[in-house]
Design brief:
Strand order of the largest sheet: 1-2-3-5-7-10
Mean pLDDT: 95
Distance between the termini: 25 Å
Number of helices: 11
CATH architecture of the largest domain: Alpha-Beta Complex
CATH topology of the largest domain: 2-enoyl-CoA Hydratase, Chain A, domain 1
CATH class of the largest domain: Alpha Beta
Structural class: alpha/beta
CATH superfamily of the largest domain: 2-enoyl-CoA Hydratase, Chain A, domain 1
Order of helices and strands: EEHEEHHEEHEEHHEHEHHHH
Helix content: 40-55%
Low-confidence stretches: none
Strand content: 15-25%
Number of domains: 2
Largest sheet: 6 strands, mixed
Amino acid sequence: MEWETIEVAREDHVAIVSFNRPEALNALSTQMAKDLINVLGYLEEKKDVWAAVLTGGKSRAFCVGADLKERKNMDTEQMKRQRALFVKAFKTVMNFPKPLIAAVHGYALGGGFEFALGCDFIIADETAVFGLPEVTLAIIPGGGGTQNLPRIIGKHRAKELIFTGRRISAPEAAAWGIVNRVVPEGELEKTYRELMKEITQNGPIALQQAKRAINFGVEVELDTGMAFEAECYNVCLTTEDRNEGLRAFNEKRKPVYKGC
């Protein structure tokens, strides 16, 4: 399948999802939001896709946030409809049930930073720049920035970044715990391919259940989280992949998982 503003490539059990508006530094347009929702919905249903990477493709930016040129001629009702669509796109990223990693090259600003924050974690190269500049335009982050960023780095540091609208480099983002790892320019693609190969050698159902357990568990008190973890574990317990994992361990060979 093809989409107007998103490119999707497949490598074994991995989908590489790339924003494809390089002429606009991958600014988030109405069409790009629609395409992203449709792409992730399509990949969610593909049983042979076990994990995905979100990238900026060939652009010198990951995503610079909302396309303000598109927005300048909108009336209030059109803007409200677009905002609802954008919120749906951000939630689609956050709720994607399979591992979804952001690989950031260049600018990740506003909604672009929020898309990255909505992924399971971020890797970046040395060119990456992160920021939530919305207050400089008299608005606030509206794609989860005020919610996801404090959960990652604490509310005080999040307030500093959001209140100032300041941009930070990849090394600073890594030091603050926003980015998992920073690699030299030109090595990002190699790095995420190696990382996704490492992830997808594992049981795909187990990956999804581990993600569910973590995402739900961090929002509740410990006993409830432990009970939910047990439910997620039990989902894995009755799968053929679990039996294959045990057989492979005892036969001292690499398991062959099928996602069932």
